[in-house]
Amino acid sequence: MDENDAGVEHATPIWAVFGDLMSGLLGAFVLILVGVLGVQLELVSSLEAEIQKRQQEEQRRMALEKALAGPLASGRVTLANGKIGISGNVLFALNSDRLQPEGRQLLKGLAQPIGAYLAASEQMLMVSGFTDDMPVRGSNSQFADNWELSAQRALTVTRTLIEDGIPSSAIFAAAFGSQQPVADNADAEGRARNRRVEMAPVPKSAPAKKDGNG
């Protein structure tokens, strides 16, 4: 056997191994390409779903703002940092927790758009009652103090909104009494501004996990 024959015999296995290597690399490249395409399709699908969700939330937000337009223009309602504030004078008479007709009508008009907004954003509505710093007057008053008055007013608004369609699982009441004023209590105008009810969406609490011990 001459040297040329020996070279051919040694070269054949090398080309075979090289061919197997290239086939393996090609297969790996195809798998990577398929994986990249799958990730891109998933990202596109997620992006489209997020855009659609944002559009739906925007539509509900606009519906809520439309429902608030009239009350905002008249000064009966304020909107700041996502909080809807309603003047206590619109909702209740002084030192009372009974809704006035104007306040009842206002809440009725807000219930549906607020409910739709909460459902879209998966949030809850916190209804907060506030008073001025004047003591509750009158020996026949049913309220011990401003804390109790603000609590009952928040409960009245909460129950009214539930009657008008907001799920009871999506709303709760809170009382702040004369705390957190938005104006100076030194004059009548300031005290009137502090007598208010605020409604604000807040994140839902995550359900508690059971540990399996009963």
From TrEMBL:
Keywords assigned: Membrane, Transmembrane, Transmembrane helix
TM annotation in the entry: 25-44
Biased composition (Basic and acidic residues): 188-198
InterPro entries: Bact_OuterMem_StrucFunc (IPR050330), OmpA-like (IPR006665), OmpA-like_sf (IPR036737)
Region (Disordered) location: 181-214
Domain OmpA-like span(s) in chain numbering: 79-205
SUPFAM superfamilies: OmpA-like
Any matching Pfam family: OmpA
Protein name (record): OmpA family protein
Origin organism lineage: Bacteria, Pseudomonadati, Pseudomonadota, Betaproteobacteria, Rhodocyclales
